[in-house]
Amino acid sequence: MTGEVHKWIDIEMTNKRNTLHPRDEIMRTMDRIYRYRMTTTSGGNLSIRDSAGDIWISPARVDKGNLNRRDIVCVHADGTADGLHPPSSEFPFHKAIYEARPDIRAIVHAHPVALVAFSICRQSPDTRLFHQAHSVCGKVGFAPYACPGSEALGVSIADTFSKGCDSVILENHGVVVGGSDLARAFERFEAFEFAGKTLIKANQLSPVRFLDEDQLRQAADRCVNFDSYDPDQATAGELELRKQLCDFVRRGCRQRLLISTEGSFSARVDADSFLITPTQKDREQLHADDLVLVRGNQREAGKLASRAARAHQAIYDKHPHVQAIVFAHPVNATAFSVTETPLDVRTIPESYVFLRDVRRVPYGVQYRDDGSIADYVSRSNPAAVLQNDGVVVTGSTVLDTFDRLEVLESTAEAVINAGAIGNVSVMSGDVIDELCTAFNLN
């Protein structure tokens, strides 16, 4: 078949017909936000405006960690409400946003700690840390303070949204984001909080480096060229790899090593092919049949491989020992990627044994078609920091790769935290030599 070129399509344009009832969608999304510790038992509210103009919203004064579908309230255009509870006290600003922005069909409001920190400093995070956050979060705004639940707050927030903002910090309050549906609003909310957390961590290291317009365009305009093909029946080995990848991607999301719109994970099937996560799909919701089989210049029919697929392929081609690869954006390691501070993992024996010396990759190398990203990893350097784009980690199995990613992020967090206590002391050259001998590190 002829080659198909797919470029990044704005996430808001990739919607499919949603068949989940608003009650269930709000309940499930709130459960996810609560599990991720991005809201409290009493804080935050979600809403959906359906095709009939009714607004479905989470209730007032009900435990956010234990919502069920019967708790969700439907408010009609005439102001009457159906439900066991009154609607959220913040309903007025949800209604005001919908009136100001007909394109918005869902809203997330919560008090995640990083964005609250920005709100009480009267600042908004600059999402130009990396291209994906900038793309997903959309235009960022700041709404002046008004009393929670008041009409004045609705006016303040709606005015900010009416200026084209999609992610809005509320002065001394929290954050509100809107989207074309609740899935998109959640992704935007999650990416915004992730950018905020990364900025806070990075500012503890050194001045933050932001991307300019040309760099953002370089990432947005990259293409992936693959022919479409129908692979043979999957072997038991491939089926096992599909399950492993999905399990570890889900675990990574729940441990906040990955978020729903960031990162790619792959595993080698044989010398010529590998499985990889798809583009534009929520990472935590992936199923085994969502993964894309890539063989040479072909990808499994009916699916779009991650835009990082060529970078994965280059690493597999150059390094036969590599059996799995993850590109990820864990907050602490990513903080090093957006500053000039090197990530020195000579902190504890486990960190060095698992990671060795972590190299730094100049911005954009992983987007090139020349395969040069493969020059930055090897058997003796299994992980690297990607300038303004997180990290890449390789391993001998899916488990080995995930373990290294965990160790990398834990080490990065320990180094950042240590800086608040005193000077970071790394292991001496003699200790490193001893480790290399003891663990046969070549």
Q: What's the quick description here?
A:
Helices cover 35% and strands 18% of the residues. The protein is α+β, with helices and mostly antiparallel strands and 442 residues long.
Helix/strand layout:
Layout: E1 3-7, H1 22-35, E2 45-49, E3 55-57, E4 73-75, E5 81-82, H2 91-100, E6 106-110, H3 113-120, H4 131-137, E7 140-143, H5 151-162, E8 167-170, E9 174-179, H6 182-202, H7 213-220, E10 223-229, H8 236-254, E11 264-270, E12 273-276, E13 292-295, E14 298-300, H9 309-318, E15 324-328, H10 331-337, H11 349-355, E16 359-361, E17 383-386, E18 391-395, H12 398-418, H13 429-438
Parallel strand pairs: 7-8, 10-14, 16-17
Antiparallel strand pairs: 1-10, 2-3, 2-6, 3-4, 4-5, 6-9, 8-9, 11-12, 11-15, 12-13, 13-14, 15-18, 17-18
Helix pairs in contact: 2-5, 3-6, 4-6, 4-7, 6-10, 10-12, 11-12
Could you list some keywords that capture this structure?
disordered N terminus, 2 domains, 442 residues, L-fuculose-1-phosphate Aldolase, alpha+beta, 13 helices, eight-stranded mixed beta sheet, ten-stranded mixed beta sheet
Write up what this structure looks like.
With 442 residues, the protein is an alpha+beta fold. It folds into two domains: 16-202, Class II aldolase/adducin N-terminal domain (L-fuculose-1-phosphate Aldolase); 226-438, L-fuculose-1-phosphate Aldolase, CATH 3.40.225.10. The protein has helices at residues 22-35, 91-100, 113-120, 131-137, 151-162, 182-202, 213-220, 236-254, 309-318, 331-337, 349-355, 398-418, 429-438, and strands spanning 3-7, 45-49, 55-57, 73-75, 81-82, 106-110, 140-143, 167-170, 174-179, 223-229, 264-270, 273-276, 292-295, 298-300, 324-328, 359-361, 383-386, 391-395. A ten-stranded mixed β-sheet has the order 1-10-14-13-12-11-15-18-17-16, sandwiched between helices. Helix 5 (151-162) links the parallel strand 7 (140-143) and strand 8 (167-170). Helix 4 packs across helix 7 and helix 6 (182-202) crosses helix 10. The longest helix is centred in the middle third of the chain and has 21 residues, at 182-202. The radius of gyration is 23 Å and the shape is globular.
